[in-house]
Design goal:
Blueprint: H1 3-13, H2 30-40, E1 46-55, E2 58-67, E3 71-78, E4 80-86, E5 90-95, E6 100-105, H3 108-115, H4 120-129, E7 130-134, E8 141-142, E9 150-158, E10 165-173, E11 178-185, E12 190-200, E13 218-221
Parallel strand pairs: 6-13
Antiparallel strand pairs: 1-2, 1-12, 2-3, 3-4, 4-5, 5-6, 7-9, 8-9, 9-10, 10-11, 11-12
Helix pairs in contact: 2-4
Amino acid sequence: MDIKTLGRLIFIVSLLIPAAALTAEEIQTAVAFFDQVSASYGEVESYTANITITREDTVSKGTVEYRIPNKIRIDFTDPEGQVLVSDGETMHVYIPQYNVVLKQALRRRSDESLAALASEQGLNLLRRNYSIAYLDSPELTPLSEGSDVMVTKLRLNWRNSNEGYRQLILSIDQAFRIRRIIGVTANYEEVQFDFQNIETNRGIPEGRFEYEGPPTANVFESFLFEGEG
């Protein structure tokens, strides 16, 4: 997984928090559906899930832990031993293949992307910055061809080029959990995130988001946002 994907990952995983169940009768327009999902996000303080990230021919897998307002940890099984941790102020990425720790103090712009989607207020930011529609219709469709998981698919298109993704496609299952996110970057690169075994409000301790790399690892700081104002 390259550095750009690691940076965008923090933005994406914040979308994962499952919403409370809604009845079919409540679903009217795509925007109304989105607003109802957004309103229920504030009930979740933390979650864990298995995550798979696909970009072209590269597939990464691991376990993600999230705690409001903006704490994230991903322990990768593929590539084995890689770790991404953010306590909301500093992000660390340990890459065992090179025995390096990439360290980034998060600027205001990144802080917002970390926390933005973990609450009703955060999703309202997406509502303001993206147009929202059903991908095809409000009808349930298989997550993938032959899948038993039935989902409703939403399409979010950016209103301006300041957003990290020009388009997001969200696949939401019948329990109103986001099971897949497909993001299309400004350069038309596609990144797919799949989530399984989602569990909420596990009481994840603060210490899970504190990170110190191996003492022999080389540390490189400010690796992600060089050149930004």
